[in-house]
């Protein structure tokens, strides 16, 4: 299992009970789907929209907050895999718009961010299919509904 360093920066997250357990379970579920994963420590920032918007502008050149940002640590980071930053307001609004629990949406985005730290991407359709299949399986381990219910689940990386 990968270790998690949880940082709660925005007080808006205080209403979510069991944050530490939720984060650790999401990372654990993702790890179970990645037997060849790179082990290490993941820092997870539960932030606000303003802070994530600032990071989005600084590191991606994009205006506004986004739900999740992943920052791989690179080759010379010793045991640190990277950082995942999550914006409470964006995630809360998305959860409400999709009529899903905030905790379930957060689990999904943590898994999504962790997969980026493991080298997965979704820029191309085939990459997205693989990544989404892993997300689906990891979320199913947690009893979380498919976040892509109207899409073909694709073959996934472990299909024969």
Walk me through what this model shows:
Its cofactor is Zn(2+). One of its GO terms (biological process) is rRNA processing. One of its GO terms (molecular function) is metalloendopeptidase activity. This protein is α/β, with parallel strands linked by helices and 160 residues long. It has one domain (3-141): 3-Layer(aba) Sandwich (Collagenase (Catalytic Domain)). It is 44% helix and 16% strand. It has five helices and four strands; from the N terminus they run βαβαββααα. It has a four-stranded mixed beta sheet with strand order 1-2-4-3, with helices on both faces. β3 and β4 (80-87) form a beta hairpin. It is globular. It starts with a strand and ends in a 19-residue tail after the last helix. The relative contact order is 0.16. The model is unreliable at 153-160 (pLDDT under 50).
Give the helices and strands, then pairings:
Elements: E1 3-8, H1 19-32, E2 41-47, H2 49-60, E3 68-72, E4 80-87, H3 88-98, H4 102-117, H5 125-141
Parallel strand pairs: 1-2, 2-4
Antiparallel strand pairs: 3-4
Pfam families: YbeY
Subcellular location: Cytoplasm
Function: Single strand-specific metallo-endoribonuclease involved in late-stage 70S ribosome quality control and in maturation of the 3' terminus of the 16S rRNA.
